[in-house]
UniProtKB/TrEMBL annotation:
The keyword Zinc does not apply. CDD domains: PNPsynthase. 1-deoxy-D-xylulose 5-phosphate binds at R45, H50, T100. HAMAP family: PdxJ. Its EC number is 2.6.99.2. It is an enzyme of class 2 (transferase). GO terms for cellular component: cytosol. Catalyzes the complicated ring closure reaction between the two acyclic compounds 1-deoxy-D-xylulose-5-phosphate (DXP) and 3-amino-2-oxopropyl phosphate (1-amino-acetone-3-phosphate or AAP) to form pyridoxine 5'-phosphate (PNP) and inorganic phosphate. This is Pyridoxine 5'-phosphate synthase. It comes from Chryseolinea serpens. Pathway: Cofactor biosynthesis; pyridoxine 5'-phosphate biosynthesis; pyridoxine 5'-phosphate from D-erythrose 4-phosphate: step 5/5. One of its GO terms (molecular function) is pyridoxine 5'-phosphate synthase activity.
Length: 237
């Protein structure tokens, strides 16, 4: 069954807004796990707009489900991966000033960079997932580079879902087929929510994990965090 990793970036956004420690990022992560989350995802961006290096270090020995650290593999990110050795490192191609993740890697054009990075992370015993658009060529490229998994960028799916879900899902089903044939594990994430999640999971039985943050935290403002996590877990059943 597809596992739910809760991205807590936006908890840190709220905490940073006032400069104190409320909400407490570590406490919220542990509560998410207690409420049923099967993983915790963070994306410590270079400008520390939300998750900070200190948050990652504080979470390191407290998270008991799978810890997934996303980021562009610059020296700062690689230092974090070496120090934390999380369950999973998810490589994203985001520019430092990107407002959010908005594309997957070109695993053909950036093969030389990614090959060395993936090899180094694997040498620390960390699973590597490469964030890609739902294009078979990019999935195959990630497999050739030695990645364990790919994470399919699902913003295009979320957008098109509202128009025609049967069209929206097609590239993801095809990419999932190619990933399976290539021996890759399969993750998905970005802009998934209570409307579009069930159809994605039902359409892709091989989906190992979804990482969800923005919509889940927004939903929690209305339904409460525990209830919201339970609603997302139900959508994955
Ligand atoms: C990689 C991805 O799609 C998201 O996990 C990303 O981390 C969201 O980043 P923000 O929370 O900064 O929008
Ligand atoms: N990898 C996707 C993620 O962690 C959360 O993305 P979003 O749900 O905040 O869009």
């Amino acid at each position: 069954m597809t596992r739910l990793s809760v991205n807590i970036n936006k908890i840190a956004t709220l905490r940073n807004a006032r400069g104190g420690n409320n909400p407490d990022v570590v406490k919220t992560a542990l509560d998410c796990e207690r409420f049923g989350a099967e993983g915790i995802t963070v994306h410590p961006r270079p400008d520390e707009r939300h998750i900070r290096y200190a948050d990652v270090m504080a979470l390191k020995d407290k998270v008991t489900t799978e810890f997934n650290i996303e980021g562009y593999p610059d020296a700062r990110y690689m230092k974090i991966i070496r120090e934390v050795k999380p369950g999973q490192a998810t490589l994203v191609p985001d520019a430092p000033d990107a407002i959010t993740s908005n594309a997957g890697w070109d695993t053909l054009k950036h093969a030389a960079l990614l090959k060395d990075i993936i090899a180094e992370i694997k040498s620390h015993g960390v699973r590597v997932s490469v964030f890609v658009d739902p294009q078979p060529r990019m999935v195959e490229g990630a497999a050739r580079l030695g990645a364990h998994r790919v994470e399919l960028y699902t913003e295009p799916y979320a957008h098109e879902y509202k128009v025609n879900r049967d069209i929206a899902i097609k590239p993801y089903v095809e990419s999932a087929r190619v990933a399976k044939e290539a021996g890759l594990g399969l993750n998905a994430g970005h802009d998934l929510d209570l409307e579009n999640l069930r159809f994605l999971a039902q359409s892709i039985p091989s989906l190992d994990e979804v990482s969800i943050g923005h919509a889940l935290i927004c939903d929690a403002l209305y339904y409460g965090l525990e209830n919201t996590i339970q609603l997302y877990l139900k959508a994955l059943k």
